[in-house]
Specification:
Elements lengths: L6 H11 L5 E5 L12 E2 L9 E2 L3 E4 L13 E9 L14 E4 L11 E4 L9 E4 L9 E2 L10 E3 L7 H9 L4 E5 L3 E7 L3 E2 L10 E2 L2 H10 L4 E8 L3 H11 L5 E5 L9 H6 L5 E4 L2 E2 L3 E7 L2 E6 L3 H19 L9 E6 L3 E2 L5 E9 L15 E5 L8 H5 L3 E5 L5 E2 L4 E6 L2
Parallel strand pairs: 5-6, 12-15, 12-16, 13-14, 16-20, 18-23, 21-24
Antiparallel strand pairs: 1-11, 2-10, 3-9, 4-6, 4-7, 5-8, 17-19, 19-20, 21-27, 22-26, 23-24, 23-25, 25-27
Helix pairs in contact: 1-6, 3-6
Bound molecules: adenosine monophosphate and magnesium ion.
Length: 413
C-alpha cells in the first residue's frame, strides 16, 4: 500500500468520483430539501392586488380626516368585502365598505380603518380614528413583481422558498434529482434480527446508518444488508443489485487482514484501495465498477459514520447541486485532555456546548463554547456516538491537547 493520502486529497478524490444529479420535475410537496434547477419567474405579483392588511373598513382618507374618539365620523356601510370576493363594487364618496384582511381594496378607497377603531356597525359605522391614505393597505407587487425571478436556480428549497413558489402560482418545480445509491454491507459475521446471535456473530448496523443518512439528503437507496466474505458471492451480489445505481457504497472488507472481500474482489477491477491519514476511517477505497462509481468504506460502525461525514456527505451534497456542502466548524475549549496519533487527523466524537451568556446578556462573537469527548477513540464505540453532537478535530501534527486548549469542532446538528 502506498503513502497515505491526506484527508483533503481523499475528500477531493471522492468528490470528483460522483456524477452530477439529473434534473427532474416534482410537485412542490416533494421538493423540500432539494436544490432548484431552474429560475422561477413569478407568474403573478405578490400581492396580486391592493388588499386590506387588517379587518376593518375601507374608506377615503379625506372623508374621515377629522375622526377621533370624541368626534367620530359616521358613514353608511355600502358593501361587505370578505376575503375571496372577486366582484367588489367601487366605493362611493362618503361611504365605507366593511372589509376583511386580504380582501381587495375597492376602487375609490385609499385607506383602511381597523375594526378596533370603530363600533363594528354593519348598516352604518362610527369611526373613532382618522387614517391616512395607504393606512393598512398592502400594495400590489410590494413583495414580488410579476415577471421577476422569484427564486434563482441553485436555491436550496426550504419551507419559505416552497411557500414562495406556491404563492407565485407554481405546482411543480425542476429540481436536482437524488442519486440512486446502492448500500451494501459485507461480513460473514453479520446477522439480521430476529435471528438469534451465535457466538462470533453480530447484528448488522452499517447499512441502516448509511441508508438513513443518504436518504436524508434526498437520494434513493437500495440496501443489501449482508454479503458473506466470499469473493464470488460478493461479485455476483454487486452485479445483481448495482444495475440501476448511480453510486455504490460498501462497508467492511477493505483493511489489511485476510478475507478482505471488497479489496480482494475489486482490486483487479481498478478500484483503488488506499490509506487515508485519519482516525478512524484510515482504510478506504474508491473507483468505478463497470462504470458505476463505488466508495468502499471500512467496516467499523464509527469509521463508517465518520467517513460518511468527512468524505461522502460533502461529495453527495455537491453532486446534488448544493452550494454549502460542509458542516459548520466552530472553535471550542476542550473540557478534557486528549491524546491523538501522530501523522493522522483524529476525529473524536464530542458534545459541544455553545457559549453561555453571562446573566441574560448577549453573547459576543469572540466567545467560544466548550467541548467534551464522548467515548474513547475506538471505532467500535457506536453508543458514544449517539451521545455526541460534533466531531472534535485533532490535527495531524497534534499528539496531545491539554484541557482548556482550543480545538476545531464540526457541528453535526
Ligand atoms: P472489516 O473492515 O470488515 O474488517 O470490519 C471491521 C469491524 O467492523 C469488524 O468488527 C466487523 O464485525 C464490523 N462490521 C463490519 N461490517 C459491519 C456492519 N455492517 N455492521 C456492524 N458491524 C460491522
Ligand atoms: Mg469484514
Amino acid at each position: 500500500m502506498s503513502q497515505p493520502l491526506s484527508v483533503a486529497e481523499y475528500k477531493a478524490t471522492v468528490a470528483t468520483l460522483l456524477p452530477a444529479a439529473r434534473t427532474t420535475t416534482l410537485p412542490l410537496e416533494q421538493c423540500h430539501g432539494r436544490v432548484l434547477a431552474e429560475d422561477v419567474t413569478a407568474g403573478v405579483s405578490l400581492p396580486p392586488f391592493d388588499n386590506a392588511a387588517m379587518d376593518g373598513y375601507a374608506a377615503r382618507a379625506a372623508d374621515i380626516a377629522g375622526a377621533s374618539e370624541q368626534s367620530p365620523v359616521e358613514l353608511p356601510v355600502a358593501a361587505d368585502i370578505p376575503a375571496g370576493r372577486t366582484d367588489g363594487p367601487p366605493l362611493a364618496p362618503g361611504t365605507a365598505h366593511r372589509i376583511m384582511t386580504g380582501a381587495p381594496i375597492p376602487d375609490g378607497a385609499d385607506t383602511v380603518v381597523k375594526v378596533e377603531d370603530t363600533d363594528g356597525g354593519t348598516e352604518r359605522v362610527r369611526l373613532f380614528a382618522a387614517a391616512s391614505s395607504g393606512n393598512s393597505v398592502r400594495r400590489a407587487g410590494e413583495d414580488v413583481t410579476g415577471g421577476d425571478v422569484a427564486l434563482r436556480e441553485g436555491t436550496l428549497l426550504g419551507a419559505a422558498q416552497l411557500g414562495l413558489a406556491a404563492a407565485v402560482g407554481r405546482a411543480e418545480l425542476a429540481v436536482k434529482a437524488g442519486l440512486r445509491v446502492l448500500v451494501l454491507s459485507t461480513g460473514t459475521e453479520l446477522v439480521l434480527p430476529p435471528e438469534p446471535l451465535r457466538h462470533g456473530q453480530i447484528y448488522e448496523s452499517n447499512s441502516i446508518m448509511l441508508a438513513a443518512a443518504i436518504r436524508a439528503l434526498g437520494c434513493e437507496v437500495d440496501v443489501v444488508r449482508s454479503v458473506v466474505d466470499d469473493v464470488d458471492t460478493f461479485r455476483e451480489t454487486l452485479a445483481k443489485h448495482a444495475e440501476h445505481a448511480d453510486l455504490i457504497v460498501t462497508s467492511g472488507g477493505v483493511s489489511a487482514g485476510a478475507y478482505e472481500v471488497v479489496k480482494d474482489a475489486l482490486t483487479s477491477e481498478g478500484v483503488r484501495f488506499t490509506k487515508v491519514a485519519m482516525q478512524p476511517g484510515g482504510p478506504q477505497g474508491s473507483g468505478t465498477v463497470n462504470g458505476t462509481p463505488i466508495v468502499t468504506l471500512p467496516g467499523n460502525p464509527v469509521s463508517v459514520l465518520v467517513s460518511y461525514e468527512v468524505f461522502l456527505r460533502p461529495a453527495l451534497l455537491a453532486a446534488l447541486g448544493h452550494v454549502h456542502v460542509d458542516r459548520p466548524v466552530v472553535r471550542a475549549r476542550l473540557l478534557e485532555r486528549l491524546v491523538a496519533p501522530a501523522g493522522r487527523r483524529q476525529f473524536r466524537r464530542g458534545f459541544y456546548s455553545p457559549p453561555v451568556a453571562p446573566g441574560a446578556g448577549s453573547v459576543t462573537g469572540s466567545v467560544t463554547g466548550t467541548v467534551g469527548p464522548r467515548g474513547g477513540p475506538g471505532s467500535h464505540l457506536l453508543a458514544a456516538f449517539t451521545q455526541a453532537n460534533c466531531l472534535i478535530v485533532l490535527p495531524e501534527d497534534v499528539i496531545e491537547m491539554d484541557e482548556g486548549a482550543e480545538v476545531d469542532v464540526v457541528l453535526l446538528s
